From TrEMBL:
<comment type="pathway">
    <text>Metabolic intermediate biosynthesis; chorismate biosynthesis; chorismate from D-erythrose 4-phosphate and phosphoenolpyruvate: step 4/7.</text>
</comment>
<feature type="binding site">
    <location>
        <position position="219"/>
    </location>
    <ligand>
        <name>shikimate</name>
    </ligand>
</feature>
<comment type="subunit">
    <text>Homodimer.</text>
</comment>
<feature type="binding site">
    <location>
        <position position="88"/>
    </location>
    <ligand>
        <name>shikimate</name>
    </ligand>
</feature>
<dbReference type="Pfam" id="PF01488">
    <property type="entry name" value="Shikimate_DH"/>
</dbReference>
<feature type="domain" description="Shikimate dehydrogenase substrate binding N-terminal">
    <location>
        <begin position="8"/>
        <end position="90"/>
    </location>
</feature>
<dbReference type="GO" id="GO:0008652">
    <property type="term" value="P:amino acid biosynthetic process"/>
</dbReference>
<dbReference type="Pfam" id="PF18317">
    <property type="entry name" value="SDH_C"/>
</dbReference>
<feature type="binding site">
    <location>
        <position position="247"/>
    </location>
    <ligand>
        <name>shikimate</name>
    </ligand>
</feature>
<feature type="domain" description="SDH C-terminal">
    <location>
        <begin position="240"/>
        <end position="270"/>
    </location>
</feature>
<dbReference type="InterPro" id="IPR011342">
    <property type="entry name" value="Shikimate_DH"/>
</dbReference>
<comment type="function">
    <text>Involved in the biosynthesis of the chorismate, which leads to the biosynthesis of aromatic amino acids. Catalyzes the reversible NADPH linked reduction of 3-dehydroshikimate (DHSA) to yield shikimate (SA).</text>
</comment>
<keyword id="KW-0560">Oxidoreductase</keyword>
<feature type="binding site">
    <location>
        <position position="217"/>
    </location>
    <ligand>
        <name>NADP(+)</name>
    </ligand>
</feature>
<feature type="binding site">
    <location>
        <position position="240"/>
    </location>
    <ligand>
        <name>NADP(+)</name>
    </ligand>
</feature>
<dbReference type="GO" id="GO:0009073">
    <property type="term" value="P:aromatic amino acid family biosynthetic process"/>
</dbReference>
<feature type="binding site">
    <location>
        <begin position="130"/>
        <end position="134"/>
    </location>
    <ligand>
        <name>NADP(+)</name>
    </ligand>
</feature>
């Protein structure tokens, strides 16, 4: 029997935590399989994807900067990947066909369900900060979970307006980002602000109800200044590491045949 191979395709790819994550699961469940980092230049992506099934690959994750190109190169695209406009999980059929999916929206919501079980998506509006690729996945997740109203705010107004038109959500000027906090049941940071080496996100959460949930897709550091401020105010907070871990679950299950669990031990292994 051939040992199934999977990997993460990026450029650069050395920083990716996915090999540690999948490697931990393969060992934990005693499965035959390998998961490797694959540094692939943009010009080589199409050839690489066509060659991979013949080399024994059953699937791959895709990271920056190839997520949009991988979607365009796929033979079959899930509805979720189409809406997000990017692929992060590819599965190769026995016939070599490439199926593209995006599990970031699933990962985002699974993280909240695991770590903020008291939060009801239908319980009130959400404010999303940022309008990049991560914001697209978060909006899809919030819409599918039944969040009644979504507000989007971004430093570059045109990007927020374009996303708002595409997804039918509301916008708020970046300089007014605190204005609707009293009505919000959920606040999501999808910007890179607060990430190690980046400026902090400047926002005063004083008027945000203590019943609101605050989550950050940033996970380095785990406790961003945003989450520290929210916690001090009594809000439920969820860090971004769980999204990274949960988004990997559907791919691992498809490729290696076992649905893996996201545990504290896995968090520790990925952070080590
Ligand atoms: P990703 O695909 O990971 O979401 P991205 O497309 O580069 O990454 O988006 C990064 C987000 O962080 C954007 O919303 C960006 O705002 P702009 O659209 O105005 O660039 C936001 N961001 C990055 N640095 C920022 C800063 N100093 N102040 C405000 N927003 C910032």
């Amino acid at each position: 029997m051939k040992i199934p191979l999977a990997g993460v395709i990026g450029c650069p790819v050395g920083h990716s935590r996915s090999p540690i994550l999948h490697g931990t699961w393969l060992r934990q469940y005693g499965l035959a399989g390998h998961y490797v980092p694959l540094h692939v230049e943009a010009d080589d992506l199409a050839d690489m994807l066509r060659a991979m099934p013949r080399m024994g690959f059953v699937g791959a994750n895709v990271t920056v900067p190839h997520k949009e190109a991988a979607l365009a190169l796929a033979d079959d695209v899930t509805e979720t990947a189409r809406r997000i406009g990017a692929a992060n999980t590819l599965t190769f059929g026995a016939d070599g066909r490439i199926q593209a999916d995006n599990t970031d929206a699933y990962g985002f919501m699974a993280n909240l369900r695991q770590n903020a079980p008291g939060w009801q998506p239908s319980g009130g509006p959400a404010l999303v900060l940022g309008a990049g690729g991560a914001a697209r996945a978060v909006i899809v997740a919030l819409q599918d979970a039944g969040v009644p109203q979504i507000y989007l705010t971004n430093r570059t107004t045109a990007r927020a307006d374009a996303l708002a038109a595409e997804f039918g959500v509301n916008t708020l000027p970046w300089q007014d980002r605190e204005r609707l906090l009293p009505q919000m049941a959920c606040l999501v940071n999808t910007t890179s602000l607060g990430m190690r080496g980046q400026p902090d996100l400047e926002i005063d959460l004083t008027t945000l109800p203590a019943s609101a949930l605050v989550t950050d897709i940033v996970y380095a550091p785990l406790k961003t200044p945003l989450l520290a401020q929210a916690r001090a105010q009594g809000c439920a907070v969820v860090d971004g590491l769980g999204m990274l871990l949960h988004q990997a679950v559907p791919g691992f299950e498809r490729w290696f045949g076992t649905r893996p669990e996201v545990t504290d031990a896995l968090r520790a292994a990925v952070l080590a």
